[in-house]
Amino acid sequence: MADSRNGTRTMTDDAQQMTSYALNDPAKLLQPRLLLLEDDERLGQITKELLDDDYRVEWVTSGAQAKSRFAAGSFDVAIVDRRLPDMDGLELVRSLRASGVTTPVLILTALGAVEDIVDGLNGGANDYLTKPFSFKELDARLRAMLRGYDAERGDSYGIGDWAFHAHTAMAESPQGDLVPLTAAEAALLKVMCDSPDHVFSRAELLGTAFRPDAVEGTVDTYVSYIRQKTTRDIILTVRGKGYVLGRPEQ
Known about the structure:
alpha/beta, 5-stranded parallel sheet, 4-stranded antiparallel sheet, about 40% helix, elongated
C-alpha cells in the first residue's frame, strides 16, 4: 500500500488498483470514481475500505499526487483533507476550481472552527465534514453530492473490461484511462451498446447513428476509428453480416 522509502502511496499503486478492479469485476467500472486525499495512513486505509463497495477509490497522500491524478483523468467526487504534508487541501480545491474542474469536493478535516468551514465552502468545496466523523454521515453526504450521478450512470455501459460513458462521450480502459470519442463515434457505440447481442448490418448502423447523407463506407471508417482509440475487440466483424459489440478482456 505504501512506498517504503517515503511512506506515501505511488502512482504505480493506483494503476495496479484500477487494473485489478477491471480484471476481477468489470462492473466496477460503472461505479462512481472517487479520489480520497488523506495523509494519515491508518485513517486513509480504513476510509478506503469502507468506501470500496460503492466507489472506485483512488487513495493518495499528498496534494501533488492529487493534482497529478486529476491531470490524468476525471473523478465523480473527491474527499480532501486540509492538513497535508505539502499544502493545505483548500489550496488544492481552489486550484482545481481555477482550472475549471467542477468535481464535487467534500473537505474532511479536523479544522472545525466556523471560520474554517466558511473558508472551505467559499474556497470551492461543496461540503465540509469535521473529524472525528461518522461513516454513515460521510456516506450520506457523498450520496447527496452525487444525486445526479445515478441518472448519468444509466448512460454508462460495460463492454467486457472496458466501459463507455455515453453522457460524456468517453470510453474507459480497464486501467481507468478515459478516451474521448467524437460525437459520431459515440453515437455509433451507443446504438450498439443498446442492443449488445444484435448483429448490425451497415445499413442499420448508417440509418441510426449517422446523418442521412452519409455513405455506407462511413460505418467501416468509424468502426476503425473506435478500434484505434480503444481496442480492436470492442467491435467485432461478423463476416457477410456486419458488426456486433465485442467483449474485450485483457
